[in-house]
Amino acid sequence: MDERSALRRLAAALPAAGDDAAVVDGLVVTTDMLHEATDFPAGTTRYTAGWRSVGASLSDVAAMGADATAAVAAYAAPSLVEEELDAFVEGAVDVCDAVGAEYVGGDLDTGTEFTVASTALGETDAPVRRSGAEPGNVVCVTGTVGRTAAALRAFEADDVDRGNDLFRFPPRVAAGQALAPHATAMMDSSDGLARSLHQLAEASEVGFDVSWDRIPVHDAVEEYATDAADRKRMATGVGEDFELVCALPRASLGDARAASPVPLSAIGTVTEASEGVRMDGEPLADEGYTHE
Fold first, then answer.
1. Do 40 and 157 touch, CB atoms closer than 8 A?
2. For Mg(2+) 3, which residues are the binding ones (predicted)?
């Protein structure tokens, strides 16, 4: 069973599951697990690991349109090294500070592989689900995509400073709150833009028609892409960019852009489910990040 099949199975058994985070009486809660083998390339500093692992959970809070309040993390490594642990906590504290949340601790353990399980909490009385997009809505994305794909290429090229810098993405908590009054559906792009569109389409029972030339691509992609096809794959099919992908009524686009603290790009239109997910009129493959 692959990750998405497992998630569908859990969602069928747990009615409160299926969005980026669960919401219980206004409390938003989400958890993530990251491993060295699949999530932290060689050269990733413990500071970056602290920022990125806690940031991933904060991004889920952002996707619900919620205010982030606090985060914790369980940290496991083959040995507990003072400098590494201090750097991890510093990264976790700094990413929380960046979105107005507080890092309040967690748990420690030893194990065969460096692993982090992070949990973030937030608050909202009006969560934005994945399931509300309607045909005719505009589909938008915050910021730029392809940042993590460029980071992975930087690590492969042994440019670890560049890789670490790109890996420390800004969680879009403020943007999520600004978009919440306008969005009909929203999620983060942790699995990549293409896969996020497919996930939103499945949850909302709609299709999408997006245009490649409207997709905002991170400048770093140009540094590492080998050709046009590679640039497109880096931007849409790698994932873990942690931008917000949302649908909103066309009449609300201007107000949403004015409210958002980061650029908001309209990349296409919500269509009927029978149309599927398309880019430039052609089927867009359901490709992106998957835990193996």
1. no
2. 20, 60, 188
Q: What would be the CATH architecture of the domain defined by 3-123?
A: 2-Layer Sandwich (3.30)
Do 122 and 59 meet the contact criterion of CB atoms below 8 Å apart?
no
| 79 phi and psi angles, rounded to 5 deg | -150, 155
- Going by DSSP bridges, is the β-strand pair 185-188/244-248 parallel, antiparallel, or unpaired? antiparallel
Tokens found for residue 227: 């050709």
CATH of span 138-283: 3.90.650.10
Q: Is 30 annotated as a binding residue?
A: yes
Q: Does 158 appear as a known binding residue?
A: no
290 is in an annotated binding site: no
Pairing of strands 138-142, 244-248: antiparallel
The closest of 243, 279, 247, 275 to 262, measured between CA atoms, is 243
Rounded Cα gap, residues 202 and 190, in angstroms: 16
Any idea where the domains of the chain sit in the sequence? 3-123, 138-283
Please check if 9 is assigned to a binding site. no
Residue 60, marked binder: yes
Give the tens place of pLDDT for each residue, 188-247.
999 999 999 999 999 999 999 999 999 999 999 999 999 999 999 999 999 899 999 999
Distance (Å, rounded) from C-alpha 32 to C-alpha 53?
8
Annotated binding residue 224: no
Q: Which residues contact 165 (CB under 8 A, 6 or more apart)?
A: none
The torsion angles phi and psi of 256, rounded to 5 degrees, stand at: -65, -45
